[in-house]
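> Could you send the GntR family transcriptional regulator prediction when you get a chance?

Sure thing. Input:
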Amino acid sequence: MEDGSEPTTLREKAYASFTRHLLARDLLPGQFVSQRELVAFTGLPLGAIREIVPRLEAEGLLTTIPQRGMQIAHIDISLIREAFQFRLFMEREAVALFTASASDDELARLRREHEEMLAQALSQAPTPEMEAKAQSIDWAMHDTFINALGNEIIAKAYLVNSVKIRLIHQERFRIDGRVVPVMREHLAVIEAMESRDPQKAVEAISLHIDKARRLALQI
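Output:
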């Protein structure tokens, strides 16, 4: 007798593969795609693809348009405003709690990681590899705040929004050429957390997110 674990595994694999191809720009915002094309992209059965379509629609990553097929989400002003507002609401609270709960070792690790990246960016011409590493450090710090909450509901909701934020980054602005200011903004957040001042940390993360939002809204 089947326990149902395999279909769930296939659904999760299909979802993870879809978002991976989306972030790799194999699938582009606004692009029309068929279920069979998604099978080809993911290498997973048609049944698994059909099962994740309602989830992708509910999350706003995909829209089914009658007579035309499925369309990848557009990056428009509404999406940018809503995604950044969601991010701000989540991260303000997460940073406040992290400021109180993070260990000194964890804060020291974050500072060391950012200072090393900043020093590298200041001492050499930017390369794709360096900027990719900086982007990874950038996203990882934000994820750290959310993951530290230990709340699965929040983590899942944030993950969906994070996919949208990363799509916005790719379409509207990238870290390319901006490693130094991003690292300095992060270090301001880290400094506030080191002082164990939640309000100061909230103000620093709010400023950082608002700068990203303003860049995304530039046409």
